[in-house]
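Below is how a single chain appears once it has passed through the pipeline. First comes the sequence as given, then the structure the pipeline wrote out for it. We keep one example in the README because the format questions we get most often are answered faster by looking than by reading.
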Amino acid sequence: MRSARISRTALALVAATALAATAGTAVAAPAGHTPTAAAQAAGRTSATVEAAQAAAFAHAAATGVGAQTRLRAVEVMADQDGKRHVRFAQLYRGVPVVGGDLVVHLGADCAYLGVTRAAGRAVSLPSTAAELTPREAEKHAAAQVRGGQAGAARLVVDHTAGASTLAYQVAVTAADGAPDAARTVLVDAATGSVLRSAPTVDGFLSPQVVARLQQRGETPHPRTAAGSALVGASGKSSGYPAPAVGKGLSLFSGTVTLDTTQTAARTFLLKDTTRGDAEIRDAKHATREDAKIFTAASALTDSDDTWGDGTTKDNATAAVDASHGLTATFDFYKKTFGRNGIRNDGAGPRGVVHWGTDYGNAAWYDTCHCMIYGDGDGQTFTKPLVQLDVTGHELTHGVVAATAGLEPTRVDSRGNQYGEPGALNESLADIFGSATEFSTNPKTGNYLMGEQLGLDQGFLRRLDKPSLDRLEGTIDYWTESTADAEVHAGSGVSSHAFYLLAEGSGRKTVNGVTYDSATYDGSTVQGIGRDKALRVFYQALTRYMVSTTDFHDAREATLKAAGDLYGTTSTEYAAVDKAWAAVDVTAANRP
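Resulting structure:
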């Protein structure tokens, strides 16, 4: 799972401010001076943003912006054919809008082509003056957590339900630092009622699945991987700091190569400067849940650049798996899509191991832009959740947070989340998490998720026939009730559509795993191959999805993406339409 969107609003605007600072009005170069490639790119970005803003206001009836609206660019994307897409965060009378995101689409000549927007209605409020004081809002929010301690309340406009409500956003932590207790709360600024209380950190394993395992008395037995004995590492340098190449014996991936940093003759840091300073640190069981999770953790060092022993007896072993997962996912996105980091800003992923006490989970935490890994809860999950597909899944939540920002439509008191946008988020994390495995280990990659957790059913979820997951009750096909399904259960709809697009229907074996994917209407679907299917879904995510995208919206997004990449008369375009129809998502049955 990912951290809640309502805790990310301010971060999105900070990122937008940074982008605006680097993409300001182009300035003429001094005489005799040739602009650098970076300066030229910044000028093009600035011109694109300005054109998109102008188009948004010129086409206000379609985009939903008005005289009180201010737009801040979050991301600018360019296609190979020259089309541009600018993602905006929205402010209303200077107040950040939650659920007001939109993407303006431009042609190669910067002419307006259309818009994808999260809200069907324009933001409208009679006033942005709150009746409730910030202190009162903090008190209401703190009551959502036992022994809750509220951070500073910040004014926002909640537009997630299609209507505008002035609200306070408050981060709440538990006084005892209990893992998973922290919440990000929206409080109605007029009445004091709680509009939403979402977990600040949501783990790979939902509260629902953990509860079901405990009810069954099932204790998973994770499948660890054997590794060869470690030998002396290579890549040593006489000048420090310098990149080095070490080795690690992991829990789940055997012996792996680690790109590290040599800081002295016999000191190596688990930090990869070749991938944007990707780094794993040791939280030493601290349970803080704020932006300083990573910076407050301890750097991991070693004297000979050989890390871990393949068991949890060595404190570094979990870090080996985590570091391998971070860099493998970074490489997958860069090699496959040209995406340079989670936020596409060149920064490498970061994470901490040994987080909390008895924390049997792993999560992407957007506030610190980092992964957190616990050591297990000592009962149901006895080993760290540092498997490669877990990391690929969770880091993808970071990518989704940096792009569409897909979010659930509701959250219950235990932290379980519901609704199609949240289910689509989980599905994309499974799709790209699985793809990370294929990219890293082409001969053993699979369409299973969590197969190394050691569950009785052999996996947590799977893409070919999602309903084989009896633990979460994942579904194969869309129905009207899918709109309020738990997000992991509902994720099967788009995961199944992706599998059909990639591999087709029917029985087949890939890397020793047998799949048998049926269709809703009994039709036969011919796959276009995993690489093309991934390109379609990534293009759709980054260009045509927003925070409220549901499965029918996702169908349209992937069709537009296939049109961009292969043309609207292509085999690939037709296959996308057929794959969605095979899970009963069609233009005809849109709610």
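Residues 207 and 509 are 33 Å apart (CA to CA).

See the next section for the split statistics.
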